[in-house]
Known about the structure:
- The protein is globular and about 45 Å long.
- The protein folds into 2 domains: 3-114, Rossmann fold (3-Layer(aba) Sandwich), CATH 3.40.50.1010; 116-164, no CATH class.
- It is an alpha/beta fold.
- Strands 3-2-1-4-5 form a 5-stranded parallel beta sheet.
- It contains 9 helices and 5 strands.
- It has helices at residues 8-16, 23-26, 34-41, 47-54, 76-87, 98-107, 115-123, 129-140, 149-164; strands at residues 3-6, 29-32, 60-62, 92-94, 111-113.
Amino acid sequence: MPVSVSDTGPLSYLIQIDAASNIRSVFSTLMIPPAVHRELSHHNSPSVVRDWVSHMPDWCRVVELEPRIELTGRHAGEREAILLCKQTSAEFVLVDDQEGRAEARRSTSAKPIGTIGVLYEASLLQSEPSLAFEQWITRLRTTNFYFSASLDRAIADLRASVRKK
């Protein structure tokens, strides 16, 4: 199974909808940089996220960045997630922001995947993929996750794909 790095947003949303444990079915290891750990632990984060971070599973770990690597722009968690991809052999980077995905494609060999993509991949490994995917999307809609019109269209396509599996 591949190794991945996560930005703050995707991991936070997966925790909030009680789907974080399913990350392990998609990725063998999830690495997070210090800035992501700080953002997830911040007092403004949902309590369920802070609790999860304070008791992280063994397949998720904080990895320090090498001081020689720099990247300007982006917010701290996203910037450090991209830098951690450069520093490691991560095959995927969990990032929802379009510009962050573009930067990851430009500067790393890691494949960007967002919250919805992780849910889709994890649903395919469930005994009832369509039901799992629908439940997670329904839960995600109860958070402040941003659903654009184009994302809603992509979700509709994924729903059709999951139903065929």
